[in-house]
Amino acid sequence: MTGAAGYPLSVAVTERAPDSQPLTDRATGGKCRDVFAQLPSAVSVITTDGAHGPAGMTASAVCSLSVDPPLILVCIANRSRTLGHILGHATFAVNVLREDQAEVAKAFADPGTGQHNRFAAASCHREAGALLLENCAAHLVCDVQDVHPGGDHTIVIGRIRSLGASRVRPLIWHGRRFRALS
After folding, report:
1. How far apart are CA 96 and CA 158, in angstroms?
2. Do residues 144 and 156 make contact, with C-beta atoms less than 8 angstroms apart?
3. 14, 115, 171, 175: least CB-packed within 10 angstroms?
């Protein structure tokens, strides 16, 4: 038997390991959140600056999409106030946080914190039409290329215009808490 790309499919079926949990739970919102919490991810702050001023939010659903053309994928909650700013300005930055920037992540994650107060938590500068937070692990400046519905989130695909990275450890989100790589 071969898969879609013509690669041979070979599956070895074994008994379930005694310490694993059976997959019998329905995919409810709470169960999905519990399982998604086990997916470690880098923590980023997504920023933009447009006619209505700066806006930003913490995101962990960010991933590389393509090298040619250079694309990144960001998933933003439909209820996020920052989403409208990003779509209105059509330019945004992905600021990948360093392992010692958990307080910055918390400031940008709190829905009760106004945009002005969020930016008080970190120094930033304007570059290439976007707001870049200082001293991050990496930066990507993007133009919105496409937008897709994704349930309770909106999937924003950004075409990367400029980027940079330093050789520092990123902040990780896993198990509903911030962690560092060891």
Report:
1. 15
2. yes
3. 14
pTM score over 0.85: no
Asked if 133 contacts 95 with a C-beta cutoff of 8 angstroms, the reply is: yes
Cα 162 to Cα 3, 11, 16, 33, 142, distances in angstroms: 37, 42, 47, 33, 7
| CB half-sphere exposure, 19, CA atoms < 13 A | 0
The residue written with tokens 């707001």 in the block is: 131
Residue 144 CA to residue 131 CA, distance in Å, equals 15
Low-confidence winner among 4-8, 31-35, 46-50, 149-153 (lowest mean pLDDT)? 4-8
User: pLDDT tens digit string along 27-86?
Assistant: 777 788 888 778 788 999 999 998 888 999 999 999 999 999 999 999 999 999 899 999
